[in-house]
From TrEMBL:
Source taxon at top rank: Bacteria
Protein name: Protein-glutamate methylesterase/protein-glutamine glutaminase
Recorded domain comment: Contains a C-terminal catalytic domain, and an N-terminal region which modulates catalytic activity.
EC class (word): hydrolase
Gene: cheB
One term of GO molecular function: protein-glutamate methylesterase activity
UniProt keyword Mitochondrion present: no
Role description: Involved in chemotaxis. Part of a chemotaxis signal transduction system that modulates chemotaxis in response to various stimuli. Catalyzes the demethylation of specific methylglutamate residues introduced into the chemoreceptors (methyl-accepting chemotaxis proteins or MCP) by CheR. Also mediates the irreversible deamidation of specific glutamine residues to glutamic acid.
Active-site residues, Swiss-Prot/TrEMBL: S173, H199, D295
UniProt catalytic activity: L-glutaminyl-[protein] + H2O = L-glutamyl-[protein] + NH4(+); [protein]-L-glutamate 5-O-methyl ester + H2O = L-glutamyl-[protein] + methanol + H(+)
UniProt-listed Enzyme Commission number(s): 3.1.1.61, 3.5.1.44
Length: 352
């Protein structure tokens, strides 16, 4: 029999520790080996219990989750799933935690109904499972980060301007917040329009878009619907709706749909990619990045069949090689490449 995934729960609320412990222990392949109320206790328990995965509360006494995470990733890197409040402050802190090396995050459970709790428990154990098999990123210290030197599409790529009519479509899930950031850091200000689906709750996508906008050369916004697709603009799907491209009297625009989840996700990468195949066809470039599950694989296949160029992140650079793997296996990925090459390869695909 295979060994169970050993989990340490860190949360200052006794109620939350009990709830998370019960949910995790209900999964046949994992067990909670300890529960700590604060960071100093957690540090001692890690030494003794040697857990495989940590669930970590963001806000705690004595030492907050971020400070503890930063020290942990420097001294004893291990897979961490953050447990965060669905608030503006919670979302900003969670994005910082992902930057520091946490694999994934989940909101605090909302006890609306037994069904809600059941769905939450399924999501929690799925994220812990993915974290156990995830690739830990090497911590990059702030002093190591050099300003991005980005070529201009219009001058460097065979003279093809951003107004060439091409549109870039991107999908990601687990590990995607950092992968999308790295991808966009290599994209110039005069890029073709870019539409992105990252699996995230609705309270997080606005913060994510603002963070990217502050770091990257193109303008990054959370899509509201009916925005014109213009060069230099990046549209992030809001966490409450599917995002797709639509043809209107004024040209191509964003469209939001509150239709049911697809592949258990809303927003879904497949919905975005399907619209790219149907509306944009061979003028589209599809990119599938790190993530758990198979959302986007079939949509990317339909994009390729419609004449689009398609790229997938390679296994070695993925935090979780799930979505790119599924897309590769069905023949949807024309070219696989490492994350640090993805922006350059995408720009080359635009110029062809």
């Amino acid at each position: 029999m295979s060994m169970k995934i050993r989990v340490l729960v860190v949360d200052d609320s006794a109620l939350m520790r009990g709830l998370l412990t019960e949910m995790i222990n209900s999964a046949p392949d994992m067990e909670v080996v300890g529960a700590a109320p604060d960071a100093p206790t957690a540090r001692e328990m890690i030494k003794v219990l040697n857990p495989d995965v940590l669930t970590l509360d963001v806000q705690m006494p004595k030492m907050d989750g971020l400070e503890f995470l930063e020290r942990l990733m420097r001294l004893r890197p291990m897979p961490v799933v953050m447990v965060s409040a669905y608030t503006q402050a919670g979302s900003d802190t969670t994005l910082k935690a992902l930057e520091l090396g946490a694999i994934d995050f989940i909101g605090k459970p909302r006890a609306d109904s037994a069904k809600t709790m059941e769905i939450y428990a399924e999501e929690l154990v799925e994220k812990i499972r993915a974290a156990k098999g995830a690739r830990l990123r090497r911590q990059v210290m702030k002093s190591e980060i050099a300003p991005a030197v980005v070529p201009s599409v219009s001058t460097s790529l065979a003279g093809r301007p951003a107004s060439s009519g091409k549109i870039i479509f991107v999908g990601a899930s687990t590990g995607g917040t950092e992968a999308i950031k790295e991808f966009l850091l290599g994209i110039p200000a005069d890029c073709p329009p870019i539409m992105i689906v990252q699996h995230m709750p609705e309270s997080f996508t606005g913060s994510f878009a603002r963070r990217l906008d502050s770091l990257c050369q193109p303008t990054v916004i959370e899509a509201k619907g009916n925005e014109k697709l213009e060069p230099g603009k990046v549209f992030i799907a809001p966490g409450h709706s599917h995002l797709q491209v639509k043809r209107s009297a004024s040209g191509l625009v964003t469209e939001l749909l509150a239709t049911p989840p697809v592949n258990r996700h809303r927003p879904s990468v497949d919905v975005l990619f399907d619209s790219a195949a149907a509306v944009v066809g061979r003028q589209a470039v599809g990119v599938i990045l790190t993530g758990m599950g198979k959302d986007g694989a079939q949509g990317l296949m339909r994009m390729r069949q419609a004449g689009a160029r398609t790229l997938g992140q390679d296994e070695a650079s993925c935090v979780v090689y799930g979505m790119p793997r599924e897309a590769f296996l069905v023949g949807a990925v024309e070219e696989q490449c490492p994350l640090d090459e993805m922006a350059r390869r995408t720009l080359l695909a635009v110029s062809r």
